[in-house]
Amino acid sequence: MSSRDRVLGRVRRALADVTPDDRPYEEAVRRDYLREHGGPTARRTVELLAENLADYRAIVHRSGASELPSLIARLLAARDAGPVVVPSGLDEGWLAAADVTRIPDRAESTPADLDRAGSVVTACAVAIAETGTIVLDGSPDQGRRRISLVPDHHICVVRVPDQVVSSVPQALERLDPARPLTWISGPSATSDIELDRVEGVHGPRTLEVILLG
């Protein structure tokens, strides 16, 4: 008997007294939990997102459409971090005021190519207020997952209030599970057993989120 057979045998014995349920999964699993807490207004939801982003040590900015190019230019100039990775579908106007070398997001780009970049600018798919999380789904204005993980500085633009939801269940309704989803809550960080925090471990050391609206 193989190890696989032993494991499957134990699973069958463990399920022997479970009543069969032939209903579709969507019907068999109860989903009557709360989808959000308290029914906040759109304005309060955006404020909660800003608070929780800051709590995770993301740097939060607010901007109107006309000020966005100059804001992004200032943030990139302040970093003085060299080339910037740009997704293929990013709004051209967002970087119109930035005097930077651009590295396009291409499938053939090597890790060394991306390592040359100090920053990346993306849009997002959705932002979750209750958890302070932004989600990228690989759309053209967000690019491949790797471009948000290699550069040390990530500027992410969130359109408010359209892209902001209150809770995780509401976010899941907007997302396609077949897409490469990247969930980001603050800059990349980890802690050792003594709770010494280290940032930039497996992603950007600095996350700047622009609430555009």
TrEMBL record:
Protein name from the UniProt record: LUD domain-containing protein
Transmembrane segments: none
Species annotation: Streptomyces capoamus
Pfam families (UniProt xref): LUD_dom (PF02589)
All copies of domain LUD, residue ranges: 49-212
